[in-house]
Amino acid sequence: MSALRHSLPIILLQLYMLCVLPPAAAKVTALIVFGDSTVDTGNNNYISTLVKSDFAPYGRDLRPPGSGSGGQPTGRFSNGRLAVDFISEAFGLPPLVPAYLDPNVNMSSLATGACFASAGAGYDNATSDLFSVLPLWKELDYFKEYAAKLRSFQGEDRAQETLSEALYLVSMGTNDFLENYYAVRSGHAAEYAESASGYAGYLLGVAESFARALHALGARKLDLNGLPPMGCLPLERHAATGACTEEYNAVAWAFNAGLRDLVARLDDGDGGLGGGARVVYGDVYGPVSDVLADPAAYGFEDVAAGCCGTTGRFEMGYMCNEASLLTCADAGKYAFWDAIHPTEHLHRFLADRKMNTTLYVFQ
Asked: Is pLDDT of 16 > 70?
């Protein structure tokens, strides 16, 4: 009787916790990726486009944990892994996110992650048309196809859980401004020729429609990523002085402010996506700016030029190749691999920063 009397408070406490405390959130079941070259893990290898990186020296430092091999080009626009690969690993998922169009990948691998991104893509269909890459609507179509395959592979109930507990990461917009608005001005970019803010508003409208479309298809965990300080990419620095193009940075900053507002609205229960959805803003501008301001503090030596090429200021894609004899020996010292894309070192830093400041809410 005495033992029962002493154990009763513990039993009551356990019952209270079961009845009152909310259940622990399910872990992230898969990482689903949409966007451009910063997150494309190899889809462009399998479409007819000149925007490819399936050749050396791309991927020369790609050696994921437990792979037993590496150093091969995969279609990632970097010397190694991308931020999405590190994020996948941080959630206990495989260290490489497979490209959906890779014919060598089966549904067993795709069940824990799938990338639909296409290098050169943008929110504006006209941007993707410039390079004959996958437009955003096609990335969404492939996701619908993937969801149907997943239901056949896992069964309806398990697939529904996978899709609802997956993290959906969207990262694009730089090509819309740098390649379309400032260089060509096709499609909607031409309509807003005198107003970068007007074009940004159009792109944000597309981003909202895309987020709502994902939600309608079962997405409940969304990470919408902003733009980097794109005027400080090696390609966009002033040829004579090496200084950043501040006009481009200001446009990126303004777009990001609009995206933050959009995320706050989508994440809010009143007028937001609803249905238990959580939407977060993925900050890229801040972490990259920190590295640019104090490279040594983060283990970098050169933040103005890319590792690959002669000057590292204009080489990318096919211009970054094995004939680029002056390609640096240690990409880890550089923030950028080519004239636009981060090194694995910077990708790892971005992933770590995001996990510690934003994505931890999904752990």
From this structure: no
| Residue 14 in domain | no
Of 169 and 17, which is predicted with more confidence? 169
Catalytic residues: 37, 338, 341
- pLDDT reading at 68 higher than 90: no
Full-model pTM: 0.91
CA distance 84 to 86: 5
* 86 assigned to some structural domain: yes
Residue 46: give its domain's CATH number: 3.40.50.1110
- Render pLDDT for 259-275 as a digit per residue (tens, 0 to 9): 999 999 999 766 789 88
Question: Which range marks the domain in which residue 82 is found?
Answer: 29-362
User: Does any domain span residue 67?
Assistant: yes
Average pLDDT over residues 73-83: 97
> How many distinct structural domains can be found in the chain?
1
Residue 291 lies in a domain: yes
Residue 80 corresponds to which tokens in the numbers above?
A: 């190694």
